[in-house]
Write a structure and sequence with these properties.
The protein has ten helices and two strands, in the order H-H-H-H-H-E-E-H-H-H-H-H. With about 260 residues, the protein is an all-alpha fold. Helix 6 (about 155-190) crosses helix 7.
């Protein structure tokens, strides 16, 4: 059933879609390739650098989703937020789709995990020298660590709390902007091909992680298909959160010692 909130949604064509994916991508790229570099050159602690250069853009994405929601004429009422962003309770079928999507994302990651190190052999895909260690494809990444950006983990529960808050902004910011705000508008323009166009653009949004494109693109398309199919952003939030929480589990293990 359509609601008054649904009726306010306008179609989002290809050019507008490119802009709505491209502008955040440019901003994230600027934050990583300029802000991160400048903070590094000025001796700013990697922990602080991480939150300024990588978390702040995600906070702004969440803010952008809420601003766009308000510009459409919606009121900041919980019922309207749930309706416009398609935040629904999961039924049995939704949970099945969620489980399949999560399994598919793990399979894709396991199968294509070699691609970042392969791509960085080519100059076009090589990462910048100043990249923070936690996201540097030239280094072996292990979820079982004793420190986080140089800060010893044992007993430091505040690190897990701060990381979890960053994770919330990461997941909620992206899902409300991409799947909550943009996807329903694209459905009015692209119909049955929405999931493919949306997923491809979301994958290309990550161009600033160019060495990860081959591993990200199929996951982004699969993720977009399920949300398009079920019309439920909550599936995206749960799956995205579960997949991105692996480093948090490693942090907690390190904190426990």
């Amino acid at each position: 059933m359509e609601t008054s909130s649904n009726l306010k949604i306008k179609p989002m064509g290809l050019m507008t879609s490119v802009l709505f994916f491209g502008i955040p991508s440019v901003f994230c790229g600027f934050s990583i390739y300029f802000v991160m570099q400048k903070l590094h050159q000025n001796g700013i602690n990697d922990f602080i650098n991480f939150y300024i250069s990588m978390v702040l853009p995600l906070v702004l994405m969440l803010v952008a989703a809420l601003i766009a929601f308000r510009i459409e004429g919606n009121k900041f009422k919980w019922s309207e937020i749930l309706t416009r962003f398609r935040l629904k309770k999961l039924n049995k079928t939704d949970w099945i789709y969620t489980a399949i999507l999560f399994a598919a994302m793990i399979l894709i990651y396991a199968t294509l995990s070699f691609t970042p190190k392969w791509l960085i052999q080519f100059k076009l895909f090589s990462p910048p020298e100043f990249l923070l260690p936690a996201v540097d494809p030239r280094l072996e990444q292990n979820i079982l660590v004793n420190s986080f950006f140089g800060v010893p983990l044992k007993g430091q529960w505040w690190i897990a709390v701060v990381y979890f808050i960053a994770l919330i902004f990461n997941i909620v910011g992206e899902e409300l902007w991409w799947r909550g705000y943009i996807l329903p508008r694209q459905e009015l323009a692209f119909g049955k091909w929405t999931w493919l166009i949306h997923g491809t653009l979301w994958g290309l949004f990550h161009i600033f992680w160019k060495w990860n494109l081959l591993i990200l693109l199929p996951s982004c398309i699969a993720h977009s298909y399920v949300i398009y199919k079920r019309k439920n952003t909550s599936i995206g939030i749960i799956t995205h959160m579960a997949f991105n929480s692996v480093p948090l589990i490693g942090l907690i293990i390190g904190i426990i010692g």
